[in-house]
Design brief:
mainly alpha, 1% strand, 461 residues
Length: 461
């Protein structure tokens, strides 16, 4: 008995040692994985910066260096520098640096904007009681423990072609939409002036986000809209303090005539191969169906009524749902549903803002992070009719497939054909339809919450 009792503990210790070996290897592997990830990140960043300094970022840098020289900033094409004069003035400090150093700073800002876009969008969906900073600190602790919501991971992978292209080109879109979601966040926290400032900055850089005014107007957040309009007007006038009133007025006239008018009035924008807007998609469809004559510019003239009708049809649900919006109970299970309706409406608005722009590159659709994450989160946390869920998943999957096809992963020939037929715009249309269906289901359907709410509107992850 003594031997037997003596053998038992020895076997137990050996078993514990065997079980601990995987943990030892896991602890040893973590630094190696971290080093490998850091090396990939550094090499990837160097590659992106070397490319972006001669891509879209080149024009921001170029305009900053010319804004005080009296030279022309704009040409009569939708290429080159196409932003208001105040943005060129804002880029002046970067233009004083070597191009590579300026591109590196811009790249870091783009990465931060990407994190903000994902983080704030997820915050709006989760709707915690705490402010963003302490909530983000807790989420970071969860990430270090390897716990990341599948909704974030799926959205990160699904929208990769868009945010990766923005990084590669050094585009401004991630800055723009990060400002938009921050405006929604500060509005939800009751910070009216800050929300208006962020919204005004976003709308002053590009006119398309002005459609987001609808979201705030139907929420009766008139003060936010007023501050945003004042901010945008101030930004347009501010360069006069350093360029002089005459030079600023001259640049504003050039920008309006050569960029804004060309994008809104001139028909040639729909023919531009890179245009992935809703209007360009309709124009290409009319060509494919033989509804347009072969002669230019008569082909676009014939398509314009259809373009106007489809554009109006895309915006109409925003007005209808806005007018039909009713206040849900401020407490109880309905609050969670009301928050999700609000998030889906915001997502629908930003998607429409990108689609109805007369001219939109594929990089502009990085905004799809917002509707895709909202749709995925709704599918995860709310149960609706099974058939509708299947349709929504199919629409989102189709959007992902089209975005991948147009990103050269399946070869340049396939990407060129998909791009020619406005595959990126089609992807955005599918995501728009998915969000609209979910919004109608939650607003009027019998959908119920899946996860038990710890706090109304909060999803513990």
């Amino acid at each position: 008995m003594a031997r037997g009792s003596d053998r038992g503990p020895r076997l137990g210790a050996a078993g514990n040692a065997a079980r601990s070996r995987p943990r030892v290897w896991l602890r040893a592997a973590k630094p190696l994985v971290f080093i490998l990830f850091a090396v990939i990140l550094v090499l990837g960043s160097v590659n992106v910066i070397s490319k972006s300094r001669w891509a879209d970022f080149h024009w921001y840098y170029w305009a900053g260096g010319r804004v005080f020289t009296g030279a022309d900033l704009y040409t009569y094409v939708l290429d080159g520098y196409i932003y208001p004069p105040f943005f060129a003035v804002a880029m002046y400090p970067l233009s004083l640096l070597p191009r590579t150093a300026a591109a590196a700073i811009w790249y870091v800002g783009n990465v931060v904007s990407l994190v903000v876009l994902f983080g704030v969008t997820y915050y709006l969906l989760v709707n915690p009681a705490r402010a963003l900073a302490p909530w983000a600190a807790e989420q970071w602790r969860r990430v270090k423990r390897g716990k990341i919501d599948s909704v974030v991971i799926i959205t990160f992978v699904a929208t990769a072609p868009f945010w990766a292209l923005n990084l590669q080109l050094g585009q401004i879109n991630m800055y723009l939409w990060a400002l938009a979601v921050l405006a929604a966040y500060f509005d939800r926290r009751g910070k009216t002036i800050i929300a208006g400032l962020f919204l005004g900055c976003a709308c002053a850089i590009k006119l398309a986000p002005a459609l987001i005014f609808l979201y705030f107007l139907f929420r009766r957040r008139y003060a936010v809209v007023a501050v945003a309009v004042f901010t945008a007007a101030l930004l347009f006038l501010a360069p006069a303090a350093v360029t002089g009133w005459g030079r600023n007025a001259e640049l504003l006239r050039e920008w309006e005539w050569r960029v804004v008018r060309a994008g809104i009035v001139e028909d040639f924008v729909y023919r531009v191969e890179g245009n992935q807007s809703l209007g360009a998609f309709v124009y290409r469809g009319c060509q494919f169906l033989g509804l347009c004559p072969a002669e230019e510019p008569l082909d676009v003239v014939a398509a314009k009524p259809v373009i106007r009708f489809v554009t109006a049809a895309a915006v109409a649900p925003l007005f209808v749902l806005g007018f039909l919006r009713r206040r849900l109970s401020p407490a109880g299970p309905d609050e969670a549903r009301g928050v999700m309706v609000d998030n889906l409406y915001f997502s629908l608005t930003v998607t429409a803002a990108a689609l109805i722009s007369p001219f939109a590159w594929d990089a502009h659709y990085v905004v799809l992070v917002v509707p895709f994450m909202a749709a995925a989160y709704t599918l995860k946390t709310f149960a609706g009719r099974r058939a509708l869920r299947v349709v929504v998943i199919a629409l989102l999957s189709g959007g992902v497939l089209l975005s991948v096809v147009t990103s050269n992963l399946w070869g340049a020939a396939v990407a060129s054909a998909a791009y020619h037929y406005r595959g990126v715009a089609a992807a955005a249309i599918l995501v728009y339809a998915a969000v609209l269906l979910l919004l109608l289901e939650l607003r009027f359907g019998p959908g119920r919450r899946v996860a038990p709410p710890g706090r109304p509107g909060y999803e513990a992850t």
